[in-house]
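Worked example 4.2. Below are the chains of a multi-component assembly; read each line carefully before continuing.
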Amino acid sequence: MHKKTSLALAILLAAGVAAPVMAAKVPAGTELAAKQEIVFNNGAEPATLDPQKMEGTPESRIARNLFEGLVIQDDKGNILPGVATSWDVNDNNTVFTFHLRDDAKWSNGDPVTAGDFVFAWQRAVDPKTASPYSWYIEMTTMANASDIINGKKSPDQLGVKALDDHTLQVVLDKPIPYFIRMLGHTTMVPANKKVIDQWGEKWTSPDHFVGNGAYTLTDWVVNERIVLKRNPNYWDDKDTVVNQITVLPIESENSELSRYKAGEIDITNGSTPIAIEHFRQLKKDIPEQIHTTGQVGTYYYSFNNKKAPFDDARIRKALSFAIDRNVITDKITGQGEIPAYAFVPDITAGFTPVVPAWAKLTQKERVEEAKKLMKEAGYGPDHPLSFELLYNTSDNHKKIAIAVAAMWKQSLGVNVSLVNQEWKTYLATERAGDFQVARAGWVGDYNEASTMLDLLTTANGNNYARYSNPEYDMLMADSKSVVDETKRNEMYNQAAKLLDRDMPVAPIYQYSTTRLVKPYIGGYPAANPEDIFYFKDMYVVKH
Amino acid sequence: MLKFVFKRLIEAIPTLLVLILVSFVLMHAAPGSPFTGERSLPPEILANIEAKYGLDQPLYVQFFHYLGGLLQGDLGPSFKYKDFSVNELVGQSFPVSAEIGLWAFLTAVVLGVLFGVVAALKQNTWVDYGVMSLAMTGVVIPSFVLAPLLVLIFAVHLRWLPAGGWNGGEWMYMLLPVLAMAAHYISSIARIMRGSMIEIMHSNFIRTARAKGLPAGYIIWRHALKPALLPVISYLGPAFVGIITGSVVIETIFGLPGIGQLFVNGSLNRDYSMVLGITVLIGALTIMFNAIVDIMYAYIDPKIRY
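Applying the procedure described above to all two chains together yields the following structure tokens:
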């Protein structure tokens, strides 16, 4: 149901109506702890704290608290005003004018101006910055972004300008309907020119750091911790409750768990799945501390669509049908993952997926169907199919690969050899197309169906399945300029139908985030599908 | 003696050069690059990034460029941790590993030698069996089992000590990692020490000392300990470098910001400059401590000196 409200709110916001502000909402009568401090395990050491250079989740989870963009999100993923209080759009949906709040300040007291956004976005596309996420601005179709990245134009020609200190104008080449949603990304937050000019690449060190978020950086010991302290200059500081956040980079799931149990961590990272045997025990011991949220992301197997016999849709479909997804989500992962029969997760905002026909069959019926398809394609007991299944090193991937291989063997008599490669080697293999079937996963950059569907277009650099269908490409290209949500939804479903027909990849499950949160932490977001949360919305109850 | 030290230093240079060259080639031969991520980058963006880090240059140019920097003490920028240079990262993490390593080393030497001597003197009694079975357990139980076990007992159940973290090197945070790290070495040293002590105690000069009627404590302290330590010292030289350059297992389990984690993550991330920098550091330390062991040998054993 919340999808509809989110939609309505997005439309409301697109029209420039200000919505209520999110802040820590402490219920009346709650007794707060004297020590308002939270320890959060981030699961990895961030590669950088420079928002225009970051690309991964560990980075953006910290950056969201150090910087604030034009828009932010509430606990359910709805768009809320951030530094922008309202905005106007022209009739073509290509020129956006943002009105910025006049009380937004940097942690050094400087006012946050429209010029800070212009500087940041120019910086993100400037080849000299060498940002691995400059393509994100390219994807918004902001005027001249591609040419600047290619070195054909200078950064000051980017389609963004400050009409005055509090008015920002953005010009897009195409009326990207989800542009406002894309603004929540950390690449799009402002940057303080004065500080960056003065300190160069060292501006993110705690001694020099200046941000405009609810927190500022006070301590950074690589591979041990990052400490954020409340920023008194933040415009909504009066509603912030938590004074200090300690961010840990613990990667080992076991260490994380023992430190959580020892009371040294309040919120776990949620990205590394908890081993099922531990999870079952936790579910018995502390069920109220387990928080599971669906995620815009899919775990799937890529078929190499350019390599025989996987260039035959019948083979791909047969293999996909024969995977018993319920076994995987119940017995192997078991943390609230949903079996996936289509590429776009159900939770995606503004998208009502049509359930494929085969998803409604029982597993037995699917296997029958699969056997028929295999026979048609010329494979059977006397001529079994043999291939390699590639996955990157991880317990979880290994368990799933073993299970799927067994399912294929049992139902279709297929001989699968498992190939396991270390992460970067696996990436290189996948990119070179040197595989037959490979484990893969994709998590959306923003909460909209195109973030998933675009992946399988011919020109997409991440389309390792090498699926190529002109009809599909055309549909996705056309959808970019359809503002009407219902119409776009229809087009996405048409595209999804093509995927179901051709089965370039076998979706396995829809990702979820499972986190342990101490019972005394209030304000932890209930259901943000992009796993976006802000410490400014939380509080610590007396315990 | 000076000439000896000088000779060792000169010998170290070609060794280090070969080490750098081999590591450099191996690093670049590994599939993927520092900038291969989950999301493949559009070619023009990848080109911008490679230009920034000089990866667009031919390999030999990159190699000499690296050597040039190294001569000036510059280990280059980290390809993974973009806000830091390798010098800064190593400067921040090496002291942590070294501090834990030093304490673990001291604990190992003191307890290991003590246990070894006690077991040797009480040879074939229950004391000997007790100490040696404990030592055997220490050798057999790997640190990745022992460390979580210690955490479980002292941090999760008893809550006496923190389960991890460094906190600027407070002793409370160091106790468990030091113990987990030292355990294996205590056992090894105890076993070596016991063996060599038993051998020494049966040698002629000890028998002579006993025949002269010297007190047992004096014999052990004055005559037996020094020669019995020789095998321990030859074991300790290489062990010392290993111990102070960090254990990735201990650092991962306790969440310590040491050099072991940097090194392992560096190779997984293909952080070329980081891996090379730490290789050079460990290489140089290994050469240095082997030389120190040789010198100590010469000091303890006159047979080598003369």
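Take a moment to check your reading of the output against the notes. Chain B touches chain A through 52 residues (CB under 8 Å). DSSP finds 13 helices and no strands in chain B.
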